[in-house]
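Page 42, continued from yesterday. The earlier attempt failed because a stray header line got pasted into the input along with the sequence. Redoing it now with the clean sequence only.
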Amino acid sequence: MNTKEKISVVAVNLNEEHTIEQVLTNIPPYIDEVLVIDGHSKDKSPIIAKKLGYPVLLQEGKGRGAAFKTGFRHAQGDIIVMLSTDGNERSGDIEKLVNKIREGYDLVIASRFGQGKSHDVTAIRKVGNWGLTQMINMVSGLSLRDSQNGFRAIRRAALNQMNIEANGFDIEAEMTLKAGKLGLKVAEVPTIEDERMFGVSNLRTFRDGFRIFKRIMKEWERSPPYL
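This time it went through. Structure tokens are written below.
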């Protein structure tokens, strides 16, 4: 891989004024571009990001998937890292994701299980993640431990083949399923997910779990090319 390929970080934000500065300032300094995609926050988090020198773009549409898709449209990188500003994800681990991509992988997921660890996931969410991951592995032909973590890196060329549709928390499932069906090289690297110290997660376990299940069923019936 050409190490001169440009790396973009798409950092989605919604009312994370207590954590956004720490997350952004811990991004490795060699990253070429950082875009903060703001979901119309009511707090000072967009102001903080701008004061730190980062461009802030208002997301188009509603939902986590819509925020990332906004970032994908504007990011200029050959490699795109997906990041949240809620403080759960250790932005210093971006280096692990990028290094694994540079080994020749198309999609790299930061795994909270196996050698990784989560201080935030509840028992119910852990069981749900396991079940959804088993279904995704079956449909995609992959062998993952943590198909649902949104902290990940993907090559632009791979993303362009996917035509991502999801606007909600099913974006990771769609991306992973399509990666498997496209025959892309997918890997995991261990990460530690920290406990959320401020605010409330936007994830609703049962509602969003059902949304992800429906996405799996939809992608089960589909095959590339994704036009």
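Notes: The mean pLDDT is 92.
Reminder to self: strip header lines before submitting.
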